[in-house]
User: Which sequence fits this backbone?
């Protein structure tokens, strides 16, 4: 098994990545993701119901293997109660309890915003979606702890507006918990981010964690971010805190 430090051996990394990909294929990545889902979620529950607060917005989530319904509720700057609902049927906004029409471009923006919050909350569960492409990269160490590194990309069909984004996930080799992730995004001017899991706790048998978010827009290669993080060379951007009110698995 190869163990490499990417920040100093970029070209070696590329060669090793190709060799590992050819030798291991997606089966290794799939096995790691499945074990991480088991570690975080106890497997794939048939139904998830969740209620939480994020950045002063109230969210609810209902997801089964076939359907989903996401909502967010808040008050706008003039005190109007806003309730956004995103489901298999599409997007609908309510103002003071009454449905309203919104332009398609705004509906798309609101939907993407809700999806983004839910995506990170549900990780690593959604890494088994049909549009996900998994590649096992290899073993690395971060701060002396061994990790499996998996690259995630998306098929255009079913991958959403941001299907061309690329993610990296560091799964603890012993626990299979997801300790770090990084991603390269292209909306709103694009950029790169590195996230460190913090404040890990268990809620009704599910591992919930917050994140410390680092900005890395000046970095060319995602695969160097773990080394830059170790060296204290990433810029802290924010802390992402999720206050779970209720969580039910069935």
Assistant:
């Amino acid at each position: 098994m190869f163990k490499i430090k990417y920040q100093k051996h970029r070209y070696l990394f590329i060669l090793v990545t190709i060799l590992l990909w050819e030798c291991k294929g997606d089966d290794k990545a799939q096995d790691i993701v499945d074990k991480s889902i088991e570690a975080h979620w106890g497997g794939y529950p048939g139904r998830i119901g969740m209620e939480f607060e994020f950045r002063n917005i109230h969210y609810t989530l209902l997801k089964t293997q076939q359907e989903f319904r996401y909502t967010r509720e808040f008050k706008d700057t003039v005190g109007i109660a806003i309730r956004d609902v995103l489901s298999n049927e599409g997007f609908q906004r309510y103002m003071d309890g009454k449905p309203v029409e919104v332009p398609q471009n705004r509906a798309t923006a609101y939907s993407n915003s809700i999806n983004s919050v839910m995506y990170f909350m549900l990780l690593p569960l959604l890494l088994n979606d049909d549009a996900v492409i998994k590649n096992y990269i290899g073993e690395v160490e971060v701060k002396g702890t061994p990790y499996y590194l998996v690259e995630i990309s998306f098929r255009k069909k079913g991958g959403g507006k941001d299907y061309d984004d690329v993610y990296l996930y560091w799964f603890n080799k012993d626990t299979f918990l997801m300790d770090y992730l990084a991603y390269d995004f292209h909306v709103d001017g694009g950029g790169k981010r590195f996230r460190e899991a913090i404040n890990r706790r268990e809620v009704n048998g599910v591992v919930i964690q917050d994140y410390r978010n680092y900005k890395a827009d000046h970095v060319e290669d995602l695969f160097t971010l773990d080394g830059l993080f170790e060296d204290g060379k990433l810029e802290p951007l924010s802390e992402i805190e999720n206050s779970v009110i209720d969580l039910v698995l069935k």
User: Anything to note?
Assistant: The first strand starts at residue 47 and ends at 54. The first helix runs from residue 10 to 41. Helices lie at 10-41, 104-122, 225-230.
